Automatic annotation (TrEMBL), chains A, B:
Recorded family membership: Belongs to the group II decarboxylase family.
Alphabetical list of Pfam families matching this protein: Pyridoxal_deC (PF00282)
Matches recorded under Gene3D superfamilies: 3.90.1150.170, Type I PLP-dependent aspartate aminotransferase-like (Major domain)
Cofactor(s) in the UniProt record: pyridoxal 5'-phosphate
Sorted UniProt keywords: Aminotransferase, Decarboxylase, Lyase, Pyridoxal phosphate, Transferase
Record-given protein name: Aminotransferase class V-fold PLP-dependent enzyme
GO MF terms, alphabetically ordered: transaminase activity
Residues annotated as signal peptide: none
InterPro entries given in the database record: PyrdxlP-dep_de-COase, PyrdxlP-dep_Trfase, PyrdxlP-dep_Trfase_major
Amino acid sequence: MLSRLLPDRDMSEIPENFLPIESIGIEDIDNLFESKCFSRHASQAIDQLITYLGDRSTRGLALTDPAGIRAAVTRLTLGGQTSDTAEHDRKLAEIVDLYLQTGIQVYSPGYMGRQFSGPFPVTAVVDMVSAIATQPASFYEAGALPCVVERVMSEEFNRFLGFPSDRFTMFTTSGGSLANLTALLAARGRRYPQAWGEGMGETDCCPAIAVSSDVHYSITRAAGILGIGENRLVRLPLDHARRITPAGAREALDAAAARGLDVFCIVANAGSTSFGAIDPLDELADMAAERGIWLHVDGSHGGSLIVSDRLRPRLAGLNRADSLTLDAHKTMFVPAACTLLFYRDRDQATAAFRQEASYVFENTSDVYSEYNSADRNFECTKRPMIMSLWALWAMYGRTAIAEKLEALCDMTRKAHGILSVAPDFVPLHLPETNILCFRYLPNEQLSPKALGALQTEIRSRVRARGRFFISKVDIDGVSALRLVLMNHRITTDHIRQMLDEVRAVALTIREEFPQSEEI
Amino acid sequence: MLSRLLPDRDMSEIPENFLPIESIGIEDIDNLFESKCFSRHASQAIDQLITYLGDRSTRGLALTDPAGIRAAVTRLTLGGQTSDTAEHDRKLAEIVDLYLQTGIQVYSPGYMGRQFSGPFPVTAVVDMVSAIATQPASFYEAGALPCVVERVMSEEFNRFLGFPSDRFTMFTTSGGSLANLTALLAARGRRYPQAWGEGMGETDCCPAIAVSSDVHYSITRAAGILGIGENRLVRLPLDHARRITPAGAREALDAAAARGLDVFCIVANAGSTSFGAIDPLDELADMAAERGIWLHVDGSHGGSLIVSDRLRPRLAGLNRADSLTLDAHKTMFVPAACTLLFYRDRDQATAAFRQEASYVFENTSDVYSEYNSADRNFECTKRPMIMSLWALWAMYGRTAIAEKLEALCDMTRKAHGILSVAPDFVPLHLPETNILCFRYLPNEQLSPKALGALQTEIRSRVRARGRFFISKVDIDGVSALRLVLMNHRITTDHIRQMLDEVRAVALTIREEFPQSEEI
């Protein structure tokens, strides 16, 4: 795998005759828009993708020195643009080849490390169609189909989510970070309606947001962006499985109030990034209701569990949230970004943004503008990201997603079982989703610092070997290894092989550093 | 065109046997990941796209009643998911057909109305490859190729932009609105470094942003989002061509200071949304430098002019901006979103966000993490949007983009010429880019209100006829018609035909409303 990573010729050499040409003429440009040009390019790329998807080998990431990739990119960038179609074909082939060889091999069972996956291949076809069809999805006029599809899909999801059907809303937005920011903005707008016009300088109390101590960085960033202040986060304590503890949360909220902080929003995880932990949503909803606080659930990773009849109970209480982020590009297996943002009450959604722009916003509402989402989503030009998810749902059915997700969660539990009985490993929690953190335990007792350093070194070396890709995470300052199972082709055999790989690299580390504390 | 918009069977009827099935099995799911499944889907979609791209007819938007589309979408969503591959193929064909028939027909010369275009078809192929290759572009580990490509492309662009080569930075982000927000955040961070941690409540002066009176709504939104306050915008006056006047700007800035406002950022347009107007960047840069103000240039529409040797002089002074937004999905003809955000000084870029997340951010910088952009861009999972732009640039050369852009700007000037000599039209400005606003003038004298209402009605009716698609814009409260020429196949004949269409609908309006003031 590593050996075929890059073309074997010397890529740092840029021939003299590869200097850019200065003109190709409008007729040549027009040819590039001809259907036969598209046909040639597309057929060729598809052949390459077929080969790629057919490769069932176990492999991780071929982590390459940037200098090698850079030389290849530079050569392709600077060299020899002509109107010669054969040359175009050759270059495209090289670009696609380079693309498929670099990066994490997400369709391989060796990939066990991040929250994205090789999407259902049909979604890639839909992305291609989306690029040609050009229906930006914030306004019905330009994006009639995706706008309607968002509406229909919102109703599909709400069959499982259970928000009030006459009041809820859902729309797509460009990534979980943007969805979280948007929801927090709506929460801010509810508590401080004057902030939009007058700024946060006019709030005379101390706005604050309560978050899981395992909050995603997009939430802490949002506090900085929105003028709340990153230091105004109230971190709620966690149990051994990294879930917010209701009692701890009550105490922390009381203490915050005593310090003069006005907590206007609680952010809970439904599938934390580190552990896949699901916070006690029902208890947090009680607390939020009692205190008049907005409850936002960051379900970027685990929100999709609602589409599985078997997994849905893990999200009990979700229907009581004020807002919910769900990344379909994580656990619904479509290309990034495809994030769904739900609000229990659509009036709160439109309060997030207020603006006027005559070239896009109509003053009068009509049958068309009712389908616009631009008053609720951040983007002006929004990619019709819903289309790939919808195609998948319409063609194969919800159950294709749900059953893949169930298979992944089941396999993660099996991995937990394997780790539990292995003498040289310790799983750190019973996985609630498809994420599992664990540590390798050497024979000798190590300090926490050395134990963490060992995990980090193991992770780097496993990655460097190129067969398996796992990730690492810091837990209270001590590193751990982390599995994210995104490929339904991963079997217990692959898990065992990966653990053997960890053992093997741990052995080499031991040989290099006989004093383990020095790693 | 209209007649073939939707399948002609009754779509509101959902047969009983189309109820969703409840299980398809993991083996069936695995088949959906097989290369032969992808091959079948892709080949079929490509055939449909070839037919679509081959249609050279003049047509605009088939604006459809949402109910019709909704019925079709509902039928496809609810009906008959099975593991039968023939059924999958049939559904995909129907989805693609529906997709291509709805929406604005952007590859047709009848389309003259918005800032997106039918992209170079090869970019759609690259989008498909991107979906399979799955290289999210914020971190080198996952997105090695797009991370390197961003770096190389930043250098390519800077050959024309002229920022200090040892200090500037460029990265992609998901849309012009997000790029503008990010740049304003960097500007806020420079003036109020404590705001990130402590919130905007701690700033004891009155932060304000000076903007063109024709500012895009994403900027006014950003003021609301960042805790500055939408009411803290200082609007700079415009000349007849809707460009900021330097003298007026000085006065407005002085007046703002006298009112106790601390203007920390000026936002200028390089291609305003309404007019395509380019503000006097050199004079504004002088003003910003004198007063220690950040200069952000919203070049979402017109920033791409820098790649044309002939058009570049229109952007004189751009190299003195602190930051620049450029939407390649507008005037570089790639799929949305593909936005480039430039900073003259990369240290300012990293000051926009501050955070820590052990599962993604490495504390130590190495040869790989140096290529990460997550410390500068908002997104965690970022679409590798640079890839389609790069493929275009590498395969066909910069000149393919530049010459298409020149052809569009030239044709817009020709349209201006045609309107200038027509007795029943008045162009409102000499176009600086490919956007031109104008009004139809009836024989009789109308009040401004009635004149505006007439334009709005003309625009709606032209749109409804389905042959041409133009847009409208409000100028100081009075509507005007607006051309945005994005298709190099538009000729002066098409312009004349469109004007004839306007005349024809104006005549029908006249017949229906003999008293023009009553429109």
